[in-house]
Amino acid sequence: MTLRVTFSAGLLALAPIGAFAQDCTVEGDPMDLEADAVAAVYDCIEARMAEGYAANGDPVAAEFRSWQVTSTRPALAGPHGERFLQTFANDTAAEQYLKFAEEGVEMPAGSVLAKESFAVKDGKAVPGPLFIMTKLEEGGAPDAGDWLYAALMPNGKEMKIQQGFCAGCHLNWEAQDSLAYPMEDVRLTSQ
Ligand code: HEC
């Protein structure tokens, strides 16, 4: 088994921790990466992603990596911009989310899903946004299925997003309370 992933250290050996990041090189078409090659890219990039998201004091960014992971590895999906995605569910959300139920789903208020992302550009993995959905009390956001949508840039700064943009797509999964779930082949089962 050959992993098509190589690591090369950054040049700035004296830079503060995190300021220089090793390159996470990906050879070949990201669509064709095997599961363990994806896992190796993730191993390379995950600490840098986590540090970046948390760099601006966002409370979800500081916490989400201690939540329940919902897939066996990040997976490439189209709708979030050809990125590898991995979703974490907080304590309130985890039990219901991990059922991946298709009918009659009603997530409890206070559920939070945080989805980290990375893309492959010019043969290198690069961190993408952290996407966040928070379930409000009933009536909290009637046009958005009572979900509040947010996103952080890889440096932890809040992105300006339109609720209607995110909800407009997520409401397609009405019977799943706006949840789209990870790609089927990576869903974490038998909790
Ligand atoms: C064009 C459709 C589309 C748009 C627009 C969209 N999403 Fe998603 N979203 C998806 C799909 C499909 C998934 C599941 C993909 C996966 O995880 O593999 C998903 C998953 C998520 C998840 C994980 C929870 C879940 O649904 O399983 C979060 C959090 C999320 N999106 C946030 C956002 C935010 C924030 C925005 C707006 C900035 C947004 N999304 C815009 C399609 C969309």
Automatic annotation (TrEMBL):
<feature type="domain" description="Cytochrome P460">
    <location>
        <begin position="63"/>
        <end position="178"/>
    </location>
</feature>
<feature type="signal peptide">
    <location>
        <begin position="1"/>
        <end position="21"/>
    </location>
</feature>
<dbReference type="InterPro" id="IPR032033">
    <property type="entry name" value="Cytochrome_P460"/>
</dbReference>
<dbReference type="Pfam" id="PF16694">
    <property type="entry name" value="Cytochrome_P460"/>
</dbReference>
<protein>
    <submittedName>
        <fullName>Cytochrome P460 family protein</fullName>
    </submittedName>
</protein>
<dbReference type="InterPro" id="IPR038142">
    <property type="entry name" value="Cytochrome_P460_sp"/>
</dbReference>
<keyword id="KW-0732">Signal</keyword>
